[in-house]
UniProtKB/TrEMBL annotation:
The keyword ATP-binding applies. Belongs to the TCP-1 chaperonin family. Keywords: ATP-binding, Chaperone, Nucleotide-binding. InterPro entries: Chaperone_TCP-1 (IPR017998), Cpn60/GroEL/TCP-1 (IPR002423), GroEL-like_apical_dom_sf (IPR027409), GROEL-like_equatorial_sf (IPR027413), TCP-1-like_intermed_sf (IPR027410). This is T-complex protein 1 subunit zeta. GO terms for molecular function: ATP binding; ATP-dependent protein folding chaperone. The keyword Protease does not apply.
């Protein structure tokens, strides 16, 4: 009942005698559907939900656990970003930025002699991480 209040915006009452329009919640669509052997009640088209339910299904308990962990981690990351008001880029963002800086004209002109080749080789080595991540995600590494 508590979550139903959060979804629909109503206020729980102990008796129907206390019902007034200002304590009623609202939902555009409520229906029951059977998924597998379980019956679920879906409440949709609500105005300002303060709670949601994510239904995670899979072929076995291991897969469901992995999906649940991934969703929980993603939601925790979004929550931390909102609370901290900051984001730490990942996915090779630092390596790309560092390689771009090392290859920039302003930085290269400060490096003397054969050291330029070492700096360029190091910058290229940094790009291995984001290229590997791109390949693992199914992207064309040549475009990365």
């Amino acid at each position: 009942m508590e979550r139903l209040q959060l979804v629909c915006g109503g206020i729980a009452q102990n008796s129907v005698d206390d019902l007034t329009p200002d304590v009623l919640g609202w939902a555009g669509l409520v229906y029951e559907q059977q998924l597998g052997e379980e019956k679920y009640t879906f409440i949709e088209e609500v105005k300002d939900p303060k709670s949601v339910t994510l239904l995670i299904k899979g072929p076995n308990a291991h897969t469901i656990t992995q999906i649940t962990d991934a969703v929980r981690d993603g939601l925790r990351s979004v929550y931390n970003m909102i609370v901290d008001k900051s984001v730490v880029p990942g996915g090779g963002a630092f390596q790309v930025a560092c390689a771009e800086h090392l290859k920039s004209h302003d930085f290269i002109k400060t490096v003397k002699g054969k050291s330029k080749f070492g700096v360029e080789a190091f910058a290229d080595a940094l790009l291995i991480i984001p290229k590997t991540l791109a390949a693992n995600a199914g992207h064309d590494v040549q475009d990365a």
